[in-house]
Specification:
6-stranded antiparallel sheet; 136 residues; single chain; Aspartate Aminotransferase, domain 1; alpha+beta; 3 helices; globular; 29% helix
């Protein structure tokens, strides 16, 4: 099994994000630069993040989580694609009162092998706009 650092890099490469570690867990962040969002009239960087932690070295499975930001029309295609692959959608919500355009955040969770989870996330992201529209 690869080291956590190597595994984190592979995880991020599949998802199409930037790899990093925060609080002892691997986090892959996708910048949604194509969304020109503001909060209270000020520019706001829209990001989505996916992570894994508590890796079981015996089974290769970990707690895999995601917090993804979407435009309203992207939510249903993502949810349909992610649920069809067995990943739990744990919440759907708006986080900000004065954001333009309004962003919808979807949280997902699974206990899975991180690279399997990453491939499922990538397929769900690709289902929104076709290949590569959301970071890659």
């Amino acid at each position: 099994m690869p080291s956590n650092s190597s595994l984190c890099e592979q995880f991020s490469r599949i998802i199409g994000g930037q790899a990093g570690f925060a609080g002892g867990k691997c986090v892959s962040t996708i910048n949604r630069n194509e969304i020109k969002a503001t909060i209270l009239g000020k520019r706001f960087q829209v990001t989505s993040s996916f992570s894994f932690e508590s890796l079981d070295t015996r089974t290769g499975r970990a707690l895999c989580l995601g917090r993804a930001a979407f435009l309203e029309q992207e939510v249903n295609p993502f949810i349909t694609a992610i649920r069809s692959q067995g990943i739990i959608v744990s919440s759907i919500r708006s986080e900000w009162l004065f954001d333009r355009p309004q962003l919808i955040y979807v949280n997902i969770e699974a206990v899975a092998k991180p690279l399997v989870f990453a491939r499922k996330v990538r397929r769900a992201l690709d289902a929104i706009h076709g290949n590569g529209k959301i970071a890659k």
